[in-house]
Amino acid sequence: MNSRYRVSLDNHTYISQFIFSNFSDVPELCYLLFAIVLLMFLTSLTGNTLIGIVIQSTPALHTPMYFFLVNLSFLEIGYTCTVVPKMLQSLVSENREISRLGCATQMFFFTLFGISECCLLASMAFDRYVAICTPLRYATRMSWSMCTQLAGVSWSIGTLVALGQTNYIFSLNFCGPTKINHLFCDILPVIALACGDTSHNEMAVYAVAFLFIASPFLLIIASYGFILADVLAMSSPEGQRKALSTCSSHLIVVTLFYGSGSITYLRPKASHSPILDKLLALFYTVVTSMLNPIIYSLRNKEVKAALQKTLGKIMCSVQDKN
Ligand SMILES: *[C@@H]1O[C@H](CO)[C@@H](O)[C@H](O)[C@H]1NC(C)=O
């Protein structure tokens, strides 16, 4: 137990610094994971930035669906940048410490981006529902102000939940071990370090998280329920195929996000093994954010064409300069 970071205040100790654990029992694994995660991190940054640039610079893609997609890419960049750099550092370096403030900041942004993403995915599902089920009123119902409001509400909910959760957790008393059995300051591994009986804190955190993760999910399910009913009622197979193709990318992204999220967070406690947990967390944060731009650009002719055009322009301007 490292006593350097403990300061005695009154008669309880105050922890000013935490330490991440890594895969120290299997050191070779660390370098391999470092290389893989670094590669995925860079792919994710490039992909999400590129999607943003391509959509902004292509007037044909200035529609609600792509407005939300740019916002989602922006979220993904924030999300990975909050967690991955420090994670990479702790994988290979001896310096795996994080200050209490740093840990709180990381948790705040991680929660903000995570909850906002749930809400944004629900807004995107609502957009598809309006487009497919009420096509004639789409332009009036999904106006620009509606889009910015939906995105704004998503960000606000994320910010409020993150503020509440982080504030609540860091007002707990930390006096015991400083070693976080995880690769970043995720909520449950940090609560596990608080002193005393934390089971009701865990329950409160679970309840809030469940409310703000499950409600958007229910909205998504409802939207797709209506979409499916509408598509099944269509008489032409061509119309059915077209309707489904506009929401397939979003449906894949939702499945990935919620699927990997449930595997990481909803497994029964008895089955938790720290190594598996850390591996899952590692991939959960980078894999989904790396795949979003790939899914949207590969499955979408409009984006693919715009991407080729933008890349062509970049190549040309580079050649002109030489
Ligand atoms: C995302 O949506 C918010 C709220 O409408 C807006 O202020 C912000 O500029 C958007 N971000 C991007 C990158 O489009």
UniProtKB/TrEMBL annotation:
Transmembrane regions: 31-54, 66-88, 108-130, 142-163, 203-229, 250-267, 279-298
UniProt record, GO biological process: detection of chemical stimulus involved in sensory perception of smell
Pfam families per UniProt: 7tm_4
PANTHER family per the UniProt record, alphabetical: OLFACTORY RECEPTOR
Family according to the record: Belongs to the G-protein coupled receptor 1 family.
GO cellular component terms listed in the entry, alphabetical order: plasma membrane
Entry keyword annotation includes Cell membrane: yes
Membrane topology category: Multi-pass membrane protein
Positions of the G-protein coupled receptors family 1 profile domain: 47-296
Cross-referenced InterPro entries: GPCR_Rhodpsn, GPCR_Rhodpsn_7TM, Olfact_rcpt
Protein name stated in the entry: Olfactory receptor
